[in-house]
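CORE FACILITY INTAKE
Project code: CF-77B
Contact: R.S. (postdoc)
Sample description: multi-component assembly, two entities in total
Requested service: structural model of the whole complex
Turnaround: standard
Below are the sequence entries exactly as provided by the requester. Do not edit them.
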Amino acid sequence: MARNAAAPDPRGGPRKREDEKEPLRGVRGKATEATPGTLDRLIHERMRLGIVSALAANESLTFNELKGLLQTTDGNLSVHARKLEDAGYISCTKSFEGRMPKTAYALTVAGRKAFERYLDHMEALIRAARDA
Amino acid sequence: MATVRPLRPPPPIERDPALSDRALDNLRFIRETMERAGTFTAISGWGIAAVGLVAMAAALVARGRPTVAWRVETWVTTAAVCIALSLGATARKARRSDLSMVSGPAQKLALAFSPAMVVGALLTAALLRIGANDLLPGVWLLLYGTAVVAGGAFSVRIIPVMGLCFMVLGAAALFAPPVAGEWLMVAGFGVLHVLFGIQIARRHGG
């Protein structure tokens, strides 16, 4: 199972700190669905949330387009994109444009569902605070 | 690999104002990222093609007008009609595609498109005042092309290509004999609009 996919974090602390402590590594297998009331930590991280949001607004984006859009480095983007790819949230297509390699990313059905669940979760948090 | 099930039931949604602020911040971040990433794809190809047909009809009408002032008036009126026509067609396509006409990409497109058009209007008045009417086709084609290239940066990729074609025709019109100006206007505002409009409609859903 994906170590950090949809795993509830009882402390509710930001995932980024954990990522900083441990080296980032690929996550094997498909992400499990977040249960209601739990946060999908895989998407919650800012860079990965940016990647998924950008891909939700486009059929596909190239590595360079994403890099420019999210104002990040090659290394950072590729690590986070790999995590999403390994979890089955995005797909990656490598091709050549002339002699230049081109990497394009697209949101998968599982990724879009996870993104929608995440949006629902955020809206539920806001509603809960308003109703309190 | 075995599936790990949580030992405890999932916690209920917390009623924490700070959590709600973070959720709002996350939603804001998502919206802004999506707006930046999105391009305005609701430009209506059929609307552009219709603009081309109207421009061709206007060229015929303008040729029949006895004075330069009346010809210019015909083209200016046509421009106003075409702007309304293409805005209407784009609004219709946006509604159909569930896109907003005031989204970030749409606003950027409008902001990038407008300056060259305003300059075109001012230059038209100035050139008419000094009687440099022969320059009008070149100036109109060039500045319209510039506006389309600038605005097209926030839309589908074919739009800036269309703008470049207008700029090429405009450059030709500036240095061509005056009699060629009207034909280049027909080639640009008429034929280019029809050809690119059909392409946009085919490739981008209307």
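Facility notes:
- The beta strands of chain A are 61-62, 90-97, 100-107.
- Residues 1-29 of chain A have pLDDT under 50 and may be disordered.
Invoice: internal transfer
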